[in-house]
Amino acid sequence: MTEGFSNNDDYVGVDNQALTFSVGQTSRTVTVTILNDTAVEGNETFAFIVQQNATDPVSIYLAKTTFRIVDND
After folding, report:
1. pTM to 2 decimals?
2. Residue 25 to residues 13, 22, 28, 29, 48, Cα–Cα distance (Å)
3. Contacts of the segment 53-56: beta carbons below 8 A, 24+ positions apart
């Protein structure tokens, strides 16, 4: 599940959706496609969190990583 934010059409991927792991499954592949545009926006970040339960608040998670989209305009 991703953390709450607005992507401003800068990428396509999982957006506030639950991804379910099967019993014994230890990994999943998540694809995020960065969209190139001509808007000067500055660098932006988004986060990906792993939670035990989809109903948990975003402040409760098992793992978290943050990604930065570097503006090239």
Report:
1. 0.60
2. 21, 5, 8, 12, 18
3. 54/1, 54/18
**Residue 9 confidence (pLDDT) above 80:** no
pLDDT value for 10:
75
* Dihedral angle computed from the Cα positions of residues 13, 17, 21 and 27, in that order, rounded to the nearest 10 degrees: 30
Q: Given a cut of 70, is residue 4 above it in pLDDT?
A: no
Identify the DSSP state of 9: T
Q: Decide if pLDDT at 1 tops 60.
A: no
Question: Could you give the 3-state DSSP secondary structure of residue 1?
Answer: coil
**The tokens of 48 are what?**
């990906």
Q: Could you give the CA distance from residue 14 to residue 2 in angstroms, rounded to a whole number?
A: 7
Distance CA(73)–CA(29), nearest Å, equals 29
